[in-house]
């Protein structure tokens, strides 16, 4: 085997040093905000939504300028990255976990669309919010952001709702599913016309309430769904409500005004928490879809008869609680 000469080793070391140095320079360049960024006072009123973030605002720009802002640090960079990266990650990793060749294909689509939509809406909103086209375009982008969240709350939650009523009688099953869809449509109409952050959050109250009732029914064994999904069922709504509350209250930058302009402000934290919430939604949904795949209607019927025959028998198998 040929041994490297001293000269070859030195050349390799120099090359690797040059590469590392170039990477460091690029990172430093990215991390150093350009000097033409503006302060809160300089911004038009529709972009003054957080008085505790004082600096790092991009000036009003055209589409090219907004896209170029992906390559330097400003006070929306973390918001853009935290919801831009999940788009690529989800599209690359989620589809293999889902069944695409049977009657549950529709629910697989619901889950994929529901998992990826909030990030697309949010990414576009945060990237182009400083577009020089004025307040009207800004509110259109905000509506797109809300629409992405709505897709997650409606289509994304359908597998949970359908798994919960999977073994119930036809009438109750369809009444529940149709009611959930009506609540979602009502929520969308409210979300697109809401005037404040709190109003926007409250638009999702009715579908949330219905999911809460179904969760209680699942706990009390009156509804279906995979029992191993329950931790994630709680986390998917609990974490996003916590994130939403932090975002609306401007905590922690309210306590350190001007110190968390670029990192760790409430919107950054909320963004990370909602990604965690959708991860839990994914875990719960994959388990529920898997459960529905294994639970044929006839199996539901068999369990139903068994349960009616011996209603006080508490040591039912993990499967048998799905139908009463
Ligand atoms: Zn956001």
Give a quick rundown of the structure.
With 324 residues, the chain is an all-alpha fold. The chain has twelve helices and no strands.
Please render the helix and strand layout as text.
Blueprint: H1 6-31, H2 63-68, H3 77-93, H4 105-128, H5 135-154, H6 158-164, H7 170-191, H8 197-202, H9 205-219, H10 230-249, H11 266-294, H12 297-309
Helix pairs in contact: 3-4, 3-11, 4-5, 4-11, 5-7, 7-9, 9-10, 10-11
The structure holds zinc ion.
Zinc ion binds next to helix 4 and helix 11.
Describe the 3D structure.
With 324 residues, this protein is an all-alpha fold. It has a single domain, classed as Rhopdopsin 7-helix transmembrane proteins (Up-down Bundle). The chain has 12 helices and no strands. The longest helix has 29 residues. It starts with 5 loop residues before the first helix and ends in a 15-residue tail after the last helix. The C terminus is likely disordered. The structure holds zinc ion. Zinc ion binds next to helix 4 and helix 11. GO terms for molecular function: metal ion binding; signaling receptor activity.
What attributes does this structure have?
single chain; about 325 residues; mainly alpha; Rhopdopsin 7-helix transmembrane proteins; binds zinc ion; transmembrane helix; zinc
Could you name the CATH class? Mainly Alpha
Q: Spans with pLDDT under 50 lasting ≥5 residues?
A: 303-324
Average pLDDT score: 86
Integer-rounded radius of gyration: 25 Å
Ligands (ions, cofactors included)? zinc ion
CATH architecture descriptor text: Up-down Bundle
- Molecular shape: globular
Give the count of structural domains.
1
Termini separation comes to 73 Å
Annotation field: number of helices? 12
Query: How would you spell out the order of helices and strands?
Result: HHHHHHHHHHHH
Say what the CATH topology is: Rhopdopsin 7-helix transmembrane proteins
Percent of residues in helices? 55-70%
Q: Which structural class is indicated by helix and strand composition?
A: mainly alpha
* Counted beta strands: 0
């Amino acid at each position: 085997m040929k041994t490297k000469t001293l000269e070859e080793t030195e050349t390799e070391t120099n090359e690797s040093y040059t590469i590392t140095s170039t990477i460091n320079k690029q990172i430093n360049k990215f991390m150093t905000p350009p000097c033409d960024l503006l302060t809160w006072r300089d911004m038009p009123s529709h972009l003054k939504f957080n008085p505790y973030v004082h600096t790092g605002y991009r000036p009003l720009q055209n589409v090219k300028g907004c896209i170029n802002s992906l390559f330097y640090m400003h006070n929306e960079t973390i918001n853009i990255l935290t919801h831009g990266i999940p788009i690529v990650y989800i599209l690359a990793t989620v589809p293999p976990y889902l069944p695409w060749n049977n009657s549950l294909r529709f629910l697989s689509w619901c889950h994929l669309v529901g998992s990826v939509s909030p990030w697309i809406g949010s990414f576009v909103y945060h990237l182009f919010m400083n577009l020089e086209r004025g307040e009207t375009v800004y509110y259109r982008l905000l509506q797109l952001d809300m629409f992405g969240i709505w897709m997650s709350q409606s289509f994304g939650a359908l597998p949970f709702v359908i798994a919960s009523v999977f073994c119930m009688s036809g009438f109750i099953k369809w009444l529940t599913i149709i009611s959930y869809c009506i609540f979602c449509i009502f929520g969308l109409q409210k979300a697109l016309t809401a005037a404040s952050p709190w109003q926007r959050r409250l638009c999702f109250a009715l579908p949330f309430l219905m999911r809460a009732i179904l969760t209680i029914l699942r706990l009390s064994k009156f509804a279906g769904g995979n029992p191993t999904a329950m931790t994630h069922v709680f986390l998917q709504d609990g974490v996003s409500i916590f994130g939403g509350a932090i975002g609306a209250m401007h905590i922690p930058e309210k306590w350190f005004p001007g110190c968390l302009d670029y990192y760790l402000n409430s919107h950054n934290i909320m963004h990370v928490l909602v990604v965690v919430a959708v991860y839990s939604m994914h875990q719960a949904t994959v388990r529920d879809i898997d459960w529905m795949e294994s639970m044929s209607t006839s199996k539901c019927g068999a369990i139903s008869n068994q349960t009616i025959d011996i209603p006080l028998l508490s040591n039912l198998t993990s499967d048998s609680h799905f139908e009463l």
